[in-house]
Structure formats: structure tokens, C-alpha cells
Amino acid sequence: MSEPIPIVNYLVLGEAPHLVSYECTNCKARFFGRRNACASCFGSEFNQVEVATTGELRSFTIVAFAAPGVEVPFVSGIIDCDGTSVNANIINTKPDPEHVVLGMKVQLATYSMGADADGVEAIGFGFEPIEAA
Amino acid sequence: MSKQDEVWILGINMTKFGKYPDRDIVDLGAEAIQAALKDAGVTMGDIGILAAGNLMGAGGIGQMLQKQVGQTGIPVYNVANACATGATALRTAVMAIKAGECDYGLAVGVEKLAGAGLLAGANRAEENDTWTPEGRFGAVVPVDGRIGTATMPGVFAQIGMEYGHKYGGADFELFAKISEKNHSHSTLNPLAAYNKEMSLEQIMNDMMIAYPNTRPMCSANCDGAAAAVVVSGATLKTLSLEQQRRAVKISASILTTDPWQEACQVLPDVNTLTRNAAKTAYEKAGVGPEDLDLVELHDCFATAELVHYDNLMLCEEGGAVDFFNSGATWRTGRMPVNVSGGLQSKGHPIAATGIANIWEVCQHLRDECGNRQIEGAKVGLAHVIGLGSACGIHILEKSAA
Fold it and tell me: Which of A39, A104, B247, B271 holds its CA 20 to 30 A away from the CA of B30?
């Protein structure tokens, strides 16, 4: 069996899936994409850091009409993960304003996108509501 | 700013926005240019620089337009700055005059967008047989719809909802009411693509595009062009009294981009660059928001209009919801916003928008706006945002002549 492959290179799979980010060693600004220099302070040294897997939903939209081939409806959210903003779909809940609420606590969740012709499974991610205890 | 350094709008025009199946961008751009030249009382022979914007065409619109209306060998700057393209073209012409390169400049923006559908959402291509990481993020599939949304209605929905989360009070109904205002304003604008009154219920019950933006809460894709002739203050003084009386002073012409903010890599920050541009514009013009008689701001979506009340400092920080609910931004209110109908009903032929909104303000300052005239208008502001991002703000003042 081949190892599963993440939907994007900043999703790290394994026992505790999480997102990783480049972090400027000087000013701590974080970037999911590679940078030649920090957009904030122009420093050119970066570390790879783990992004918190829980956060608060700071904004969202429920997309009902999208480009051909994109399944709708889906919820796009902006999640504050302990100071790092992440854009992801809100999953594992109904895509309506009764179930998706500003300020709600969410956590990273992964799901299978299926296997390719070689039997390699791709793994996607989203954020799901943390059930109130 | 000394009188010598002033730059004025001498002539300006916008075509009717709408659908022109039988006319191309050259036809539309040429119409706006010739009408702006006529309005200014000059010819292509007087113009020393042409700045031209068009986003969806093949490029080189400036030279194409010269061949249609007059090839004089002057420098052409073809500019592109997303939805701020028109304002960028105008500012390019303004800068050439300020630099002393010429006395008259011409700026034009034109777009054919009728029936264009959603912008910026890539159609999903056939997927590979095998998962193959591609691009900067090593994505094995196109991510629009799987990792958030790339389409404009959704991006700007998130921008409005973020404001709601920060300050409260912004819900679906509030955003729909903003759209109701602009559709109501458009009934007085014969050049708007749509001039139909829409009730709050109609707006809320229309097709949902990206909650909370329904279809009438999104900018209308359409065709159109706008053009402006600008002139140096020194040259204006040599022209006829009628030209001096109708000229409109550009008290500030500002362009900014988005400075780094923590979240800007996942949600475009349209706020900081607008606030920065507004601050600089008010300083340069020597006016404050309280001096404005009307504002045309970039309501590409109803959710965007709300945040720009705050960004342009038309209200106190965090107070945009109360400000709107006070009725201030209706044409009968104390700070009329988008009396043209705004992008939601007037339409948004992208590269034309940043000059068309200036045309609207000029018409009021010249007291030539017919039955939608804001009485006694002396100072106005026009604002555009192009995602990526760029913000253009112009403050315009009525001539004292």
C-alpha cells in the first residue's frame, strides 16, 4: 500500500494531522506559501511551524453558486487558529446559517478524496464544529 | 498645492452600461473618448498622453483606440489593476500632467462583460488519473470549493461577515437593505444597466449566490466605457469661462496597495488599504468626511458597501451598521452613497468603473445631474477596490469659477 497523499503540501498527515506554515524567524509572520522574504519585515529566514488544529470561526460564506464542477452548497470559513488565520471549508455539519455560526469553535478534520488509478488515496481537510460538551 | 500644480477634469463621459452584442471594446471606448473630448472642448490633437484600461481583452487597448479616434504618436500607457483599473488610468494621466510632461491627458476604461458569469472561480478541469501535486501548494486537485472559495461573491461575503463578527449587527437582512437602497437609487439613472426598484423581500428571496449575497446583491456584469480629459491648472486658466466653470478640481488622486496583515494571505484585506488611501486623500484635499456631499464607493457586493462606510471614515470606527440604519446613505440622507445605483444596479464593466464613478460625482458637482441631482453638491469622493489589492480614491471639488 502506498502512503496517502495530502490535498496540499501544507497538510501533514499521520496520527495527528495538522497544517504547517512558514514562520519568519524575525517577526513571526506566517505564510502557507514559500516566500523569498517576509512580506511584513523582509527577513529571509523561515522556520516550519505547526498551526493549531482548533480555532474560532471568524467569518464564513455559504457558496450556493460556483464554477462548473464545484459541488455546492459548501461553507468557506476563515478560522482563527490561535493567531494564525486559515481558510478552509466547514465540514461535517449542515451548510446553513443555523448550523454555521460566527464565533463557533471548530477543529481540523480530514476526509478521504478517494484513490487514484495506482491505489493512492488523497486526503482533504476542513474544520468541523467542536460539539459542546 | 499651488494653483500651478492643480489638475482638473475638463471633460468626462460614460456610455450607457448594458448589453452591446453588436459593439466591441473599441466601439465602446471610442464612443466614451469622443464624448469626453467634446465635453472638454478639445480634440485628440491637444492630448499629450493616453492611459487606457481593459482587463478581459487581448491587450493594447490604448493603441487600438488611437487607431479608431486619432493616431498622434503620443505615449500610451495600457494599465491593469483589477477593478481599480479605471482609477489607475486616470491617475496615470494626472501624474503625467503633474510631472509637467503635457497639458492635457486622456484616460479611458472599457469592458465587455455581459454574460461573463462568475469571476475568478477557475472552471475545474478534468482531473488526472493519478494524484499529482501541482503548483506552489502542491495541490492534487483544484482547490476552489475544497479549500474555501475563490469566487468574488464568496470572498466579499466573508469580508462583510468578518465585519459583522467584529462589531455585530450585520445580518442577511441588513446587507439586503443596502442593496435595496442602491436598486432604488438606480431608478433615477438612465445610464444604469438595471433601473428597476427591488423590494427587500425580492432581494432576499432571489437566487442565493454566496450567503448572504443573493444575485441582486452582486455587481451586475455588463458592457460599458468611460473616459476623462484632464488638464493642468495653468492651462485651464487660458480656456473659456464656460470651460473653467464646468471643470472639476481633482483635489486628491490616491492609489494604495494592501500592506501586510496577519490574515491577508487567506482573506484579502480590503480595509487597511482603503483606510490608508482615505486618510491620505483627506489630507491632500484638505477636507474631511464631514465635508463630502456625496460618495460613490465600490459596492461590488452589498457586503462590501458596509465595510467601506467605516474604511472611508464616513462613520465612527465599528459604527457602519448604525450609520446605515440611520438612513444617512440614502440619497435623501446626510451622506448619500451610490446615488448612481452603484455596481449592483448601474453595473460593473470592470475597467470602466473607476472613471464612471468619477463621472457620476462630476455630474453632481456641475449641477447637471437632472432629477437625481444632489442639490448644492460641492465636494464628492469616488472609491474603487481591485482585489489583489489596489485602492483608488479621488476627491473632487466644484469649480469656484
Answer: B247
What is the mean pLDDT for each group of 10 consecutive residues in chain B (401 residues)?
78 98 97 98 98 94 98 98 98 97 98 80 60 95 95 97 96 98 98 97 98 97 97 97 98 98 95 98 98 98 98 98 98 98 97 98 97 97 97 96 80
- Tell whether B275 is covered by a domain: yes
- Where are chain A's structural domains? 5-129
What is the rounded CA–CA span in Å between residue B257 and residue B339?
Answer: 27
In sequence order, what are the residues at sequence separation of 6 or more whose Cβ sits closer than 8 angstroms to the Cβ of residue B199? B180
Contact between B294 and B288 (Cβ < 8 Å): no
CA nearest neighbour of B398 among B380, B382, B381, B378: B378
Alpha-carbon dihedral angle through residues B129, B133, B135, B136, given to the nearest 10 degrees: 160
B165: distance to nearest CA of chain A, Å?
6
The alpha carbon torsion through B184, B15, B300, B260 (nearest 10 deg) reads: -140
Q: Does B126 touch chain A (CB under 8 A)?
A: no
CB contact under 8 A, A61 and B157: yes
| Containing structural domain, residue B279 | 3-114+220-396
Chain A residues touching residue B213 (CB < 8 angstroms): 61
What CATH number is given to the structural domain containing B246? 3.40.47.10
A and B: number of Cβ contacts within 8 A: 155
N-terminal to C-terminal alpha carbon distance within chain A: 38
Q: Is B197 among the domain residues?
A: no
The single residue listed with the C-alpha cell 522556520 is A47
Smallest CA–CA distance from A2 into chain B, residue: B131
SS3 A66: coil
Domain count, chain B: 1
- ipTM of predicted assembly, 2 dp: 0.96
Rounded to 5 degrees, φ, ψ at B200 are -55, -40
How would you class B191 by CB atoms within 10 Å of its CB: exposed for 0-12, middle for 13-18, buried for 19 or more?
buried
Q: How far is CA B56 from CA B28, B82, B95, B112, B351, in A?
A: 14, 10, 25, 7, 9
Q: What is the CA radius of gyration of chain B?
A: 21
Query: Which among B151, B149, B317, B173 has a CA at the least distance from the CA of A78?
Result: B149
Local structure of residue B223 (DSSP, 8 states): B
| Subunit contact B165:A40, Cβ cutoff 8 A | no
The C-alpha cell 470606527 sits at B317
